[in-house]
Amino acid sequence: MEKTTPNILIIGGGVAGIAAAQLFSDQDVIVHLVEKKPTLGGHAAMWACMATDTCQNCGACLSIEMAAQVQKQKNIILHLNTLIQTIHKETHGYTVGFENNETFCVEKIILATGFSPFNPSQINSLHYDAYKNVITSADLNTILRNETLSEYFKGKSNPKIAFIQCVGSRNREQGRDYCSQVCCKISMRHANKLIHLYPESDITLFYMDLQIIGKEIRPLFNTLSQNIDLIQGVPAEILENTETNMLTIVAEDKETQSRVSKAFDLIVLSVGMQPAQSLEAPNGMPAGILDLKPNSWGFFNTDQAALAKDVVIAGCANGPKDILSSIQEGRVAAAKVIEDLGLTPKDQLPIAVLGQGAQADKIINAFSSKGYATYLFGSGTGQTNDRKIISISGTAGNFSLYYESENEKKNLTCAAIVAAFEPEPSLNRLGSLKNDSLSLDAFSQMLEEAPDTCPKDNIILLDYFGPEIKSFARLALETAIKAKALGKNISIIMNKMLVHGALGQRLYDTARRQGVNFFRFETREDLQFEDSGTGFLIKLKEATLPSIELNLNCDGLILPPSLTPAKGFKDAAALLRQPLDKEGFLQSANIRHRLTQSPRKGIFFAGTCHDETDKDDLNNEINDILSALSTESFELPQTKIGVDTGVEINQKKCAQCLTCIRVCPHSAIVMNEKNRPQIVPDACFSCHLCVSNCPAYAIESKTFTNDQIAQKIEKDKMVILACERSAALAAGSLTLPDHITLIPIPCACRISSDIILKALLNGASKVMISGCHEENCRSMEGSHIAEASMKQVLNIPEMDASKVVWEPIAANESKKFEHIISKG
Amino acid sequence: MDTAIINKESDLYKMLNQFELGDNISECLTCGACNSRCTWFDGEGGPLPRQIIRMAALGLDEQLVNSNMLWDCLLCNRCTQGCPMGISMDKVVRKARSLAIADDKISRDIKKGIKNRIELGDVNALTKDEFVETIEWLSEEFVDEVDDPKAEIPHDIKGTKLLYLPNPRELATSLLHLTAMAKLFYAIKETWTLSCHHTDVTNWAYFAGKDDLTKKMAMMVVEPAEELGVETLVLSECGHGYHTLKYLLEDIIGRKPGFEVVSMPELVLRYAQKGVLKFDPGVHPYKIAYHDPCNIGRKSGGYDAPRQLLSMICEGLVELTPNREDGICCGGGGGMLQDSTTTVKRMITGKPKANQMKATGLSHLAAPCLSCHRQLGELSDHYKLGIKVDTVAFLASEALIL
User: Fold this and answer.
1) Which of the 8 DSSP states describes residue B43?
2) Which of A233, A256, A259 sits opposite B38 (nearest CB)?
3) Residue-level pLDDT at A257
4) Cα A663 from chain centroid (whole Å)
């Protein structure tokens, strides 16, 4: 039978849909990407850049870059401004009909219809429609993007601003008893951005349970908590003081034990996510057409929901999630389609898993079941080995692990490496007490195995030894519910409950309904512990009842462990040539490589070694890595001729100083068999850092040589050297005035003082270098290098400082770009 | 600082955690929304609603009973309007007030009123003879009032269509109000009566959370009305009377009553819409602000009838801001107005209302509740607002074209 190219339908051109489409780029399929709006990128493309001096890792700018890339992808048929009219189930696949009567057949459908922000007009007491300065977080994004924030402050440099969390989330009475998961992060980033823009602003954030989750957010929170007021309790009413025109909120004042009225210039309602309106309509599109059964919230993230055959769901249609997770889900959905179509390569690529414990086991099992040959370096729960890695060399598809085992030194060649080390599991205990507390894991296990031996009255203490990790919060809830069902008394003392999403909220609701007590504390000083017989007495100044000291007695005091970076993380990072993050965990927070990838192709991270992940997250990460392995080239040995990277080492000029090997942020330059540096095309990201740095000018670029760039420079014109991934994209839609020449460059790290000087000597009136915000450069160092080169030039005596400038501009900062060039 | 031990076996905890469909107090999310919606604010002290809920949820009955918050609460239910877990402050506070340990905290006036009602049939201890005498004297005056020798204020007539249940104040300090109502009945031209058996629309046991007595008082209205065989029971303008005798009646007495229940403004509106009653809005040639009594509006959903009626009888209705489900209590709710020791406090609890009234810039305000009416009038005097306060039905009576 003649083989036909399968057609795939992706409904929704937001980040999940685009990410799915991109995964098909090397596959023999035709992708129909349908989007009802005229542009791609969905909500993320409407979001503002949250960067202050550094990138805040929100991922919004990726949507612009992804949209630009997907438009060039050959096997995609884009249907913008298009609504689907009909989808008919056929014996094999579906027939899809558009409103314009166009029809075609597809084998599989990826549903990525996204979300709609909650509309607060439904809550009268917030007066969203009546008061101009009551806005939503979505509005704030628009305002920040358009740079019109000052209009809301009447010239004040010290505006008072409030954020109110959980508007439209966590409300059973309104049928939305789920946590929207992203709003706390968004508000924290927003608050941080506002402080950056208005350093004298006075910001208050009203929250229910601040969801401080993830490696990007914990350090952000630590800084932010020094600079803003945080108040537990979400006001449900906003009024306007007609005399002062200020917005007022009534809130509890802990010190005076009364409620006080607080005045604000601007109030931001942090609105939750609900399913896209198109999914909500009873016979709407496309849930009605496809015969999908969403759950009572309208999502597909619980067992109540059912998908139709050959339909895979991705992104926020499946439940609230952030940009990076949506991208991940899009990729995973596409990988599933590729697998279902039988297109997955059958090569048994060897994969090395570095780490130990249950997570490493799980990864090994998942990879083995997909046909990969897996090698564990470390010890799983079932097997142990003494393999100790000495060095890792090579590139993706051809890594060479040199290790010692059974007193012998050995070599393993593998296609990819997954780092899945265990963090230091430090058991907590209260030093001043004689009686022993229990660890949360141990208690949970005891309940399972020998409930009769469990203490009768129990207290689980969260957040006491540092901010809680979401998986322990989850385990605490599950354990408490189990304990209650077994007739135990159980309470949870916490600073906040990390419900994080729909299922966590559901567990929290169940636990309260079943009579688990929850107590809040603000600081450690609110708690005192004493031994009491064989048990404990806890004296608690409860945050919601500050005038009463509660005496809580228990036989079992249960403490979750703290997760801290293991001692070995530093060595592992050195071995992998990957930086640690701010807290000492693996993988830098750079969103270009989050959630599982690294700047060094073929090196992946999974599990708690790089972020706080629960069971579901780990599954997603495994699937994400599998999706990369099955769709990108990891052949062993390198059979495929790598893509043209545009850079080449001229071996005649090379002095073998090895600078390039040292500086390459992607570890893509290796010593070849002739002991000469060689660029491995498949691992190269074409950033050109080696070109800028080679002291012998031996690394040549095909299109971005100093001379080629210099040729484009015109006398008396301002030249903008703009990174293709950020500033050039921001400029993309703008018509530039005649006095400006924009030269796209692959990365700001292509810049050197040579280029700047050449531009000035050629008569450029001004040189502006523009790239990603710090910590968002895909090649890690671009913004540093560009800034350093600029400073080098400015250090030249009598150099006019206004002639050379560095401006970080993200892909979603078109307005900022316009603003900067308008100043000349 | 007080110390306390939590008690999940407490009486209050058990009472508030028995609902299969949720809305149990132990489900409180501690979201704090209620704290922002209580209108007792601006540094004047007053309750922190979340603390009330938390004390109840942790079984701290004694602390709650000893806290002023429990007794300062106006039962306006504004705080828990929109509670994400469906908790109702009204229910929590009344159950807490009903605890045996709370008994000696209940105000003497409320206790006395309850005792009078249960033992003597009237909250003010008005006897049946006194009632009959008052009504008959009023009836004689009424002939002159409407200039009709056949006109009367009837009482204890069986088989009439309508039965009017007055507010005790209409039989004591506000006789004019009763006459005004009689004038409306006269114009409605349906058979109607008063009854010496149930002179009283109030139910003070409701403020004290005494469910058994609340039921008993309700039955003191229901049984004689059924005995008389009336079609419709017409309630005098009274907030908690409306809430207990209309909105909650079936829950309280556990069955359907043998008659329909409407409030006076609802009845008047009905006959106005039928074209039976005609009004001259020119009698009130000015705009009148409208106050939502919490018990009628937020707690019973009776937002619209009084508004519709008011807009027919004056130059126009002006809304207070905020209003309807976000309306602010007059400051006399929850039994406070019925307690003679709260005169000073009521001016504090009523300050947000006074501010709201002042913001209208008007000189007239209407409320379909005689309790609100009294409190709002006192607020107007105390804060020198110069606002004349009337009930909606009284204004309708004034504008009536006979």
Assistant:
1) S
2) A259
3) 78
4) 26
